[in-house]
Structure formats: structure tokens, C-alpha cells
Amino acid sequence: MTDLEIVPSPEPARGASAPPALSDPAAFAAAYARHAPRAYAAARAVLDHAAAEDVVQDVFAALWARPGAYDSRRGPLGAYVGLMARSRAVDRWRSAAAGTAASERLAARERGSDHAEDPAHEVAGRDGLAEICRALRDRPVEQRRAVLLAHVGGLTHEEIAAATAVPVGTVKSRVRLCLAGAADRLAA
């Protein structure tokens, strides 16, 4: 027995089986096949698809590197993997949110703008937003939908095309035409 193998507890919890020897490649592969979907679901509840896949990879890489971190006396492997995935996903989400907020504050300082905390500036921003909404309201529904899916929904042109069942070129044209028409309305 190597020092990386998990030593089963003398008395496993009722209904629990002895833990797999996660340092064994075959046992690890079986554990991955069984528990990766649960880890992905836990991470996907917080992050997008690609980031959730990264979290699953991180969780299982850590488990492979340190199989002794899992203690079967504390619960089943699936629960451990799901908890680790959710914790790492929340950490990534918080880091991204903090980074975005810090970048926005830094950009505001570099522009010489201290309006981020100013209520008058916030009201003026809302008035500007209302004007933008009025400009978009005058555009055709298909164009407006494409712009909202892209800029509010955060979808790419390809994702919008798939969601609306129109060619990518049509989506790009609708976005461009809508923004040009709204800009003309705002300039008037």
C-alpha cells in the first residue's frame, strides 16, 4: 500500500461502502465517470459551461494529486466532489465579480470621474438609459430583440442565430441597423 491510497476506516458508516483507492488509475477513472456529472451540475449552477468544466477538472486534478484529502468517514465521495465543485465555482464567481468591480472603479478614476458614488450622476445615468430605451423602442422588433440579446443577454451573434433560427449574417445586420438607427435618434 502506498501513502497515497486511502485507508478504509475500520467501521464504515452504515450503508456506506469502503472508499475507493483513488490513487489507482482504474478506481479513479470509475470515480470520475460516476461523480463528474454531479460536480459539473454543482459548478454549472454558478458558472457558464466552460468555467464549470474547468472547475470539474480542477476538483478531480486536486483529488488525484491528494486522494487522502477525501475522508470516507465524513460522507460519500459524490457529496465531497459536489461540495468541492460548488465551493470552487463560488470562489471563481466571486473573484470575477470583484475583479470586474475593481476594474470599473479604476477606469472611472483614470477618466477623472468620481461620479460612481454621486446620486445626481446616477439619476442622470437613468435619464440617459430611458432615452436609449426610447430610441430602441422605435426600431423594428427583430432588430431590437437582436440588440437586447447581444448587449443585455450577453449572447454572441452565433448564439443569437441559434436561438432565433436565423442566419448569423442576418443577426449581425439587425444589430448594426438597430444601433445605427438608435444612434441617429439619440443624435437628433
Could you explain the architecture of this structure?
This protein has helices at 25-44, 49-65, 77-110, 119-137, 141-151, 157-164, 168-187. The protein has 188 residues and is mainly alpha-helical. The protein has 2 domains: 1-8 and 17-117, RNA polymerase sigma factor, region 2, helix turn helix motif (Rna Polymerase Sigma Factor, Chain: A), CATH 1.10.1740; 118-187, Orthogonal Bundle (Arc Repressor Mutant, subunit A). α2 (49-65) packs across α3 (77-110) and α5 (141-151) crosses α7. The termini are far apart.
Q: Structural class of the secondary elements?
A: mainly alpha
CATH topology call of the largest domain: Rna Polymerase Sigma Factor, Chain: A
The CATH architecture assignment of the largest domain turns out to be: Orthogonal Bundle
Assembly classification: single chain
Q: What is the radius of gyration?
A: 25 Å
The stretches of 5 or more residues where confidence is low (pLDDT under 50) are 1-18
Number of strands: 0
Task: Please indicate the count of domains.
Answer: 2
- The fourth-level CATH homologous superfamily of the largest domain is RNA polymerase sigma factor, region 2, helix turn helix motif
Overall shape: it is: elongated
The average pLDDT score comes to: 78
- How far is the N terminus from the C terminus? 79 Å
Order of secondary-structure elements: HHHHHHH
Proportion of beta-strand residues: under 5%
Helix content: 55-70%
CATH class of the largest domain: Mainly Alpha
Profile the largest sheet. none
Put simply, the count of helices is: 7
